[in-house]
Amino acid sequence: FSFPLLVILYCTVSIVGHLRGRQLAQHTKTKKALCFITVVVVLFIICFLPSNTTQLLIWVKTQSLASILPADEVCAAMEDLTTAFYTTISLTYLNSMLDPVVYYFSSPAFKNICRKAVHLELTNTVESSEKKTRETASQSISQL
Question: CA-CA distance, 22 to 111, in Å (whole number)?
Fold first, then answer.
């Protein structure tokens, strides 16, 4: 968890620094990109921190109980933390579902790829607007 978090934070800081140095003419795009990056990092932390913290607590408690209790009683004493771990690990899996949702809402190109994959009509794309323009031009010519 720590190494991936450090890599993500380093990359995020690098990207944010680069985006802040761009022209003000692209302010809206830069702001949208910064928002997207922030959402991805916050989702990563929210989804992975609880399970990793619980895993660390399990390790600490196991080490402390192993010196006090007999080996067969340690598992029973750890039952609450084990349940908490399995509950928090579901957040880790939730991240796998939330990332594509974030990507879907962040990029029109990604939306169109997803729409094509499930055979939905494309909207607001250059391809579909060119197609509509050609259809309208064909109808105008045929009416002459």
Answer: 26
Judge contact between 31 and 20, C-beta under 8 A: no
Structure tokens at 134: 């050609």
Residues in the chain: 144
pTM over 0.85: no
Report pLDDT digits (tens) over 105-139.
777 777 677 777 777 665 554 445 445 444 444 44
Rounded Cα distance between 33 and 15, Å, is 9
SS3 118: coil
Q: Is the pLDDT of residue 142 over 50?
A: no
Q: What gap in Å lies between CA 27 and CA 48, rounded to an integer?
A: 32
Question: Is a pLDDT exceeding 90 seen at residue 8?
Answer: no
Going from the C-alpha of 126 to that of each of 61, 129, 131, 142, the distances in angstroms are 58, 5, 8, 24
